[in-house]
Amino acid sequence: MLEVAGLTVRFGGLTALHDVELTVERGQVCGLIGPNGAGKTTLFNCVSRLVEPAQGSIRFDGVELLDRRPHEIAGLGIARTFQHLALVPSLSVRENVMLGAHHRGRSGFLAAALHHPMVRREERAMTTDAEDALERVGLSHLADHPAAGLPYGQLKRVELARALCETPRLLCLDEPASGLSHGEVAELAALLKRLAAELELTLLLVEHHMALVMQVSDQVVVLDFGRVIAAGPPREVQQDARVIEAYLGAAA
Amino acid sequence: MSRTRIAWIVLLVLAILLPFFFSSYRVTQFTLVLAYAVAALGLNLLLGYSGQISLGHGAFFALGAYVTAILVAKSGWPHLATIPVAAAICAAAGFAVGIPALRLHGLYLALVTLGLAVATPQLIKRFDGLTGGTQGLAAPSPSVPGFLDFLADDQWLYLLNLAILVPMFVLAAGLVRGRVGRALVTVRDNPIAAKTFGVDLAAYKTRAFAVSAAYAGVAGSMFTITVGFVAPESFGFALSFSFLAAVVVGGLATVAGAIFGALFIEFVPVYAADVNEALAAVIYGGVLILFMYVLPTGVVGLARRVRLRPKQEGERDAVVVDRGVAGGGAGERVRAQ
């Protein structure tokens, strides 16, 4: 479903990604791990078209993403969350989630200014979609709350709901477990598994929380200094000598 | 019917009755408030919602004022027919400024737009064949139509301007809510994230500029209709600062705030001069400072806080949302908080 080939990204003299190859099959949960600065978020940013690679290709269902503009990515069926939250504090939780449905709307400045009936119709549909997404992550009771002022763990779930509201086929999660308590991580693992099954999602997951990655992933890809050093089922990767040296070994 | 809508209707009724309770001099001042309110509303769409600053909205205001004056004085157009022309020309000009603004943020954009404001009086003088140069250009205000002959001139002009203002506010109210409004505030608060859920950043920013400039242009037309005369010294760069003050005093990212802001920039200098002619500017400046100190979120911001108390006020203060995203959330954050 997602095929990354020969992807190289340079920031000035620094090569953040070096000839990266990565394939994620439909319906798979792919964990992307590696030490800080390994290039995981940069890879996400390439998929989101926020970072321009020097060379390579990223194909999603046969479509070359690098030929598309950033705002077209959501419409292709790719949603993402951010490592640090990217919510709008002045909007309510529901409105933040409705942002996910933005790419499905067709009403523009003129229709909005003229209070065209289409605007109200779209608004109703978006509200329903947002409420569905909030229910899936268990936050329905907070829909009217301003996004500002909620605990971090809940804000992360608001972001997850917004990404779900984009009705993606590929969902990219950048450190969904960071800043969560032990109990919350366990809940998150269960939630991700359930969502992936119910919504037939393909997941690409950047995460430092090893237990979570190993628990939910079908495939784990290890990046170190911008290169893929190992890829395979969690059990194999865990035993790979290079991975242990680069990552697990360093952490121990 | 929602409470907000009732409040708007009450406000509108009061606004319609207002010219029958004040002197002619005061009514003309209130008429200018209407023009300034439209300009402030336009600037607020740009600054408060899309998060782009302009210190040059006086230039679009002048452009609108001169379009109306020239069409009325030289081509004999009816006043109202010039408004769509002023809006369209200013929208095009705003769009043109919006394109380089895509690459300029914060202070840089402030300076570039300030350049527009500073250059405006000189440009008007330069094209004196069209604008009348330093002499100015007379475009007499429309006279009271026969079927409304019970109205005095100033009352008629006030109500005419009010009739222009109301649809401008209705249009803006539609714009700032729903999909477009949410996208605009996201462009302001989190432009990078906005891209990832499908907001075309460049399109939204340039359109916001165009709409905002069109509002300033319509306000300029209202000014000409009211005053009946345009001259370069009416459009110095202080005018642009006044609009900025009106937006911030009224409350960033609010529609109603424009009215309070316009009242402020029209009447506070007048009353300051009443208190002490020699110290008028000092008093105005002092009041502005005091105002921002007491009401950092503007008049409407205060009203919202009062309404939210006690349920959410405390929670609102404990903002833990990290606005920076991968690569750093670029863009201006000119916010009152």
Automatic annotation (TrEMBL), chain A:
Q: Name one GO cellular component term.
A: plasma membrane
Q: Which residues form the ABC transporter domain?
A: 2-250
Asked if the keyword Cell membrane belongs to this entry, the reply reads: no
InterPro entries noted in UniProt: AAA+_ATPase, ABC_AA/LPS_Transport, ABC_transporter-like_ATP-bd, BCA_ABC_TP_C, P-loop_NTPase
Key words of the record: ATP-binding, Nucleotide-binding, Transport
Q: Name one GO molecular function term.
A: ATP binding
Q: Which domain of life is it from?
A: Bacteria
**Xref: Pfam families:** ABC_tran, BCA_ABC_TP_C
Query: Would you tell me the protein name for this molecule?
Result: ABC transporter ATP-binding protein
TrEMBL record, chain B:
Give compartment(s): Cell membrane
Which InterPro entries does its entry note?
ABC_transp_permease, LivM-like
Q: Which GO terms describe its cellular component?
A: plasma membrane
Q: How does it sit in the membrane?
A: Multi-pass membrane protein
Extract the GO molecular function terms from the UniProt entry: branched-chain amino acid transmembrane transporter activity
Keywords linked to the UniProt accession = Cell membrane, Membrane, Transmembrane, Transmembrane helix
Question: Please, which domain of life does this record's source organism belong to?
Answer: Bacteria
Q: Please give the chief subcellular localization of this protein.
A: membrane
Q: Membrane spanning segments where?
A: 6-23, 30-49, 55-73, 80-99, 105-124, 156-176, 208-231, 243-272, 278-303
Carries keyword Transmembrane helix?
Answer: yes
Protein name from the UniProt record: Branched-chain amino acid ABC transporter permease
Q: Which organism is it from?
A: Solirubrobacter phytolaccae
